[in-house]
Amino acid sequence: MSELTSKAGQMLDKAKSLYGKQVEALARQEGKVRELIANVANKLAGIKNNPRIKKLIEPVAVFIRMIKAHFAGHHKLSSTTLGLIILALVYFLSPVDIIPDFLGFFGYADDLSVILAVYAKVKDEIDQFLDWERTQI
Q1: At what angle do helices 54-72 and 105-121 cross, to 10 degrees?
Q2: What is the pTM of this model?
Q3: Is 136 exposed, middle or buried (CB count within 10 Å of its CB: 0-12, 13-18, 19+)?
Q4: pLDDT tens-digit readout, 25-76
Q5: What Rg value do the Cα atoms of the chain yield, rounded?
Q6: Would you give the DSSP letter of residue 3?
């Protein structure tokens, strides 16, 4: 398990080096973040029936809801969490990543690693958000 965590951390570090500056600028532009979310939703719609990709869908859906709540002013995120979540979505959406997505399941393995690494890193804020979200229904 430790080796898996280490590999996920390495993937996250690579994603930061590829997209860190872009994410910093993007996080300050609500319109661009909304565009990112729409593009991620479109990509998810195209792959949602692939049973091997199912592990991507729930964490990404939580990330999207968290960002929407943040920008709506309903549930604020720390700037670190917001940046990491945007990083995961940018990496997922980008055709230029470590393993190209056109390779099918294997092409999404690095995306899944980055998404799960971010999910694990911000788990406490995710839990707080999900608790808050339950009270809103």
Answers
A1: 50
A2: 0.79
A3: exposed
A4: 778 888 999 999 999 998 888 777 776 677 778 899 999 999 999 999 999 9
A5: 14
A6: H
If you average pLDDT over residues 21-28, what whole number do you get? 78
Tell me the C-alpha distance between 122 and 82, whole Å.
9
Task: Tell me if 32 sits within 8 A of 82, measured CB to CB.
Answer: no
**Residue 122 burial (10 A CB sphere; 0-12, 13-18, 19+):** buried
Question: 3-34: buried (b, 16+ CB within 10 Å) or exposed (e) per residue?
Answer: eeeeebeebbebbbebbeeebeebbeeeeebe
The full 3-state SS of the chain, as one line of letters, equals: CHHHHHHHHHHHHHHHHHHHHHHHHHCCCHHHHHHHHHHHHHHHHHHCCCHHHHHHHHHHHHHHHHHHHHHHCCCCCCHHHHHHHHHHHHHHHCCCCCCCHHHCHHHHHHHHHHHHHHHHHCHHHHHHHHHHHHHCC
